[in-house]
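Prompt: I keep going back and forth on a fold encoding question. Comparing notes only helps if you start from a blank page. Show me how you would write down a chain together with its backbone fold. Please set it down just below, with no commentary around it:
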Amino acid sequence: MLSYDLVVVGGGPAGMAAALKAKECGVESIVILERAETLGGILQQCIHTGFGLHYFKEELSGPEYAHRFIRLVEENGIDVKTDTMVLGISGDNIVTAVSHDEGITEITAKAIVLAMGCRERPRGALIIAGTRAAGVMTAGTAQKYVNLNGYMPGKKVVILGSGDIGLIMARRMTLEGAQVKMVCELMPYSSGLSRNIVQCLEDFDIPLKLSCTVVKTHGKERLEGVTIAKVDRNRKPIPGTEEFVECDTLLLSVGLIPENELSRAMGIELDSVTGGPVVDESRMTTHTGVFACGNVLHVHDLVDYVTLESQTAGEGAANYILGKRGEPAYAQTKGIDGIRYVVPQRINTHCDRNVKLYFRVGQTYKNAKVYVECNDEVLVSRTRPKLTPGEMEDILLKKEEIGELSAGAELIVRLEVQP
C-alpha cells in the first residue's frame, strides 16, 4: 500500500493548482491521480485564447495555460499517476485506484483534494422527440472532434443552449467553414459570458434566439433538421410557434454537471443547487480531511478563478496536514431574494483571514445592491450595475466581521434592485 500526505484526484487546472499550493505551504509527499493520459484536463482541447487574463495578466490558449502548470508540477517534483482511475475513497481516507500499468492500488492519505471537474449534460437528460440520428452531440464532444481529432461534425449547425462552450463552438464551426444557423436558448437570457456573446455570435452575425428550444429532431440515419419553438414563462413550448430548420448537426450546450460520484459515495453533503460538496472557507467538505475545488465544487466561468479557488483548497489541505487547523465553529451562509447559491456554504468564525463569498443570481438584474446580513444587521453591501446568471459574482467579508459572528449564526446574502 502506498502512502502520501496529500492525494489530489484530478489533474486538470484545479488539481494542479491545489497540489502546487500545498507544496508551497510545506507538504512534501503529494500525488496527483489523473484518469486521462496527460495532465491538463479539458484545457487541452480549448485551443481558443482568453485564458490567463486575470491570473497571468496575458492572453493564453487553453493548452498554453495548462502547460505552465504542468511544467511547475514537474519542477516541484510532485508525483503524477496518469491513466489512473479512482474507484473509491474509504471513510478513513484510503484511495483505491486502478491503472493499466499498476492494476488496483490502495493509497493512504492524510488529506485528499477532490478536483474531478464536471461533465456536460447529455441528450438523454433532455426531452426532445425524434430518433437517435447521427449528428446530435454535446458541444464539448464537437470541440474535441474539431480541435484534437481534425474531424468536422457537420456543415449545417444548430446549437441548443447558450453556455460558453456552445458559444465558442458557434465561432469555431463558422471558422472551419460550417454554417451555424442559430443558437437557441430556453431561458430569456444567455447563460454565457457577455464577451463570448459579442465575440462568438455578434461578430459573426449568428442569431441568438432567447426563450426558444428544440422540440423535435428529424432524420433516421443522419440528422436532417430540427423543429424549434418559442417557450412561455414556464418554459413550455407555445403551440403555433413551431419552425423547421434544416441542419445536419445539433450541438447541445445545456449545462454542466459537477462530477461528484466519489463525493456522493463517501457520504459528503452536496449542495442541491450547485451539485457540488458543501464546503467551508478553506474548501474542506463535511468529511474531515477531504477538500474540494474547481468545477467539481461549482461551475466556474473562467479557469483563472478555478486556479485561485484551488490554491485556497491546497492551502487548507496543507494546514490540516501540518496541524495548523484548530477546532472550527461554523456560521452558515444562505442566498435569498435572487441569489441562487453561495459558496462557501459555511465559514469558521475563528478564521483569521478575509473570505470571498461567491454567488450567482437567478436572472438578469440592473442597478442592484447586494447585502450580507446577520441577525438583520448589514455587515457589507455592494452596488452592482448589472448582474447576470452567466457570470459568477463575489463579495468580500473581512476577518474582523467574521470574528464577531457566533457559532451557528446565519449569514444571509440577498439583493435589492435600486430605483
Remarks:
- The chain has three domains: 1-119+256-325, 122-254, 328-419.
- The domain at 122-254 is CATH 3.50.50.60 (FAD/NAD(P)-binding domain).
